[in-house]
Amino acid sequence: MQANLVNFIQVLRTHDVRVSPAETLDAMDVARTLGYGSRTRLRDGLAMALAKTPAEEQVFSRCFDRYFSQSLADFSLPPAADEVADETASEAGETNVGEPSDGSADDSPGELEAAAEQSPALAELLQSQLMQNLLNNDRNALSVAMTTAGDRVGLQQIQMFTQKGQYTRKILDELGEQHIRQAVIDLESANNPALAELQRYRDILREQVRDYVEREYLLHAEGSNRQFMEDILSKTRLNNIERHYLDRVHELIRKMSRKLAARYARKLKSNKRGQLNMARTLRRGVAHDGVLFNTYWRKTRRHKPQILAVCDVSGSVAAYAKFLLMFLYSLQDVLPKVRSFAFSSHLGEVSELFQEHPLEKAIELVNWKYGGATDYGGSLEDFARLALDDINSNTTVIILGDARNNGGDPKLDIMQTIYQRSKQVIWLNPESRRAWGTGDSDMPRYQSACHFTAECNNLKQLERIIDQLLKSTR
Amino acid sequence: MNTLDFPQLASVEEIERGFESFGYICSPKIATAVYLAFQLRKPILVEGPPGVGKTELAKTAATLLQLPLIRLQCYEGLDEAKALYEWKYGKQLLYTQLLKEKLGDLLQGATGLAESVERLHEFGDIFYSEDFLEPRPLLKAMQEEKGAILLIDEVDKSDYEFESLLLEILSDYQISIPEIGTIKARIAPMVFLTSNNTRDISDALKRRCLHLYIPFPSVELEERIVRSRVPEIDEQLRHQLVEFVHSLRELDLKKSPAISETIDWARSLLLLHARELDEELLHSTLNVLLKFEDDIETTEAEMRTLLKPRSRA
Lengths: 474, 313
Prior knowledge:
The complex is a heterodimer of chains A (474) and B (313).
Chain A: H1 2-14, H2 21-34, H3 39-50, H4 54-68, H5 80-92, H6 108-116, H7 120-127, H8 129-136, H9 139-152, H10 164-175, H11 177-190, H12 195-235, H13 246-264, E1 269-276, H14 278-285, E2 297-301, E3 306-312, H15 318-334, E4 338-343, E5 347-349, H16 351-356, H17 359-370, H18 376-387, E6 395-400, H19 412-421, E7 424-429, H20 443-447, E8 452-455, H21 459-472
Parallel strand pairs in A: 3-4, 3-6, 6-7, 7-8
Antiparallel strand pairs in A: 1-2, 4-5
Helix pairs in contact in A: 2-3, 3-4, 6-7, 7-11, 9-10, 10-12, 11-12, 13-15, 13-21, 18-19
Chain B: H1 12-21, H2 28-40, E1 44-47, H3 54-65, E2 69-73, H4 80-83, E3 85-87, H5 89-98, H6 100-107, H7 112-122, E4 133-135, H8 137-143, E5 149-153, H9 160-172, E6 174-177, E7 181-184, E8 190-195, H10 203-207, E9 210-213, H11 219-229, H12 235-250, H13 259-271, H14 279-289, H15 293-312
């Protein structure tokens, strides 16, 4: 059972539930204390030790049900009457397979037995453990056989759904299905009436094994597949990501922002305990004849960073704009004081749009309102008019855009002013660094007025940049 | 704590019964959590929406075991001086002033600075001994003779730094004080932490605890709770009001009514000698259940549809 529990925890891990070794030990203790008598109690107990958020608890109970409730595979023949007869027969006395114990029953074993006299392959098959179990509908023995076969072929390593057929085949071979196949071929060539019967047994076996593989696949592979997908997605260039993955990407961005938000949540003023503010303590002590009755401790004050984010939504970056806006949107979720702006030919503030509308709607509105041909110079002028007064030494300005200005006036002087006034200016460019400065790109000139520039066209890069950003705004 | 000392905690069923006798109706899950916490000597982190009885759980456990309940209410800015211990600075100062004269006697006959310091050393660190230590809730829980129930309430309201402070206490039931050394708990207290999920608790803390999530109860369970708390109320009305509260929880409200509010409401209906829920009665008592003007407005708009299925039943 211990090994079983460890396997189960492995399954939980592939489904994104983080379980530490210490928690594994706890789970063992829980199982030992509660015993295996009551299923729901054990489940509740294990959930307390292993799943630490409501979301994880949901995953946990789904996995628990799947893992521990693997009901015995059902090998009974489809017709119900048959099954009952089979079972009573097997219980009454199964030593003589050929002898029908009940007259009313469909004596299928008898038919096979009769056929066996003509086919040596079938006769041999009937003696084999597998066929005996099938004939007697010994579900226990068959389930056990299937599980051991699965272990032997390494079913737990199943990764992709394309491997399902392969594993099914392997398990069938391991179980000795080829004998049945051989017998079927024999009977077919002999045109024996027992053929249909045997084929039915074979089909049932195959179906059960297929189900078993499917279940194991869901347990072991589904989780790791999702991790795999997310990994791939986060490394793909944003404009190459297919439309139907957008939801997943959105989820990724949100995940990222949650992670960052957790790290960012901290108080603004903290007492540095252990460091006495000597000057203040002495000064206050004067009133008590120099006795230092009240002590004062040093404090540090952290400033709230203020972020102004500006996003280009023009045609040249259309493919990226959606992601940049998505990023802006989640940034506004994460950080307390973010003002967002969007521009192409002119610029305007979109913070309120983001606050009031859900993501898709907000992006649509922004595109509709500010889409068009790019004019960096004019937009910078707009920006200066709207926000320059608010820029101080606590402000971080993030600009998202390709700096392709259609040959217009870059208005570098405004950028310079922003550069001098703000704490830092960050420019994220979706184009690769090699393309900067080619054609109508003004990037090298703007670069001179930025503290930090980076190429940003996939989620990995984006995450790294935000991380850096948060560190520097500390 | 030993199992023998507390027959109330001998099995899950026993716990369920014990809690019920003190008016706390708990689901098997909650009872299992208490049983495990006791057997494995692990703290329980209780999460759930406000008002489902997280704090009440610890209180009832204290009554059941007849142990003192030591409560630490967390808030932003809570630090070790308020949670763990503090030096009695005033007392230290007062004593040094009073003992000033004694100092002369002590140092009499000492020649040179080195010898004086030597003599002072013999004195030991009397000013940094347990006599000058002001125990705060966490330290107090460690010092209780017979063990205690330690309730760390709303741990999510505290700062990250404070969480790390808890780690030593929760895993080893000990506190390190630099000037004295490590103080180990005489008897490990039973610890309940509650959280309203306003922020994520760190993994390190979660790892040390059993995690218990208490959701809003089912209709049957809530009826049992109301029955045990307000036994005088008419059965039909009880059923009606619990059903109504449940349908309220399905609405999109700022704050859904919790169990404590259901109980309050049941009490006020009892005071008003109500026999049946009707629109007029709801109008006048809705403010017991809902605490936001917006919520009350939303509910009043939906009142008819909310009441309809109930009148049929």
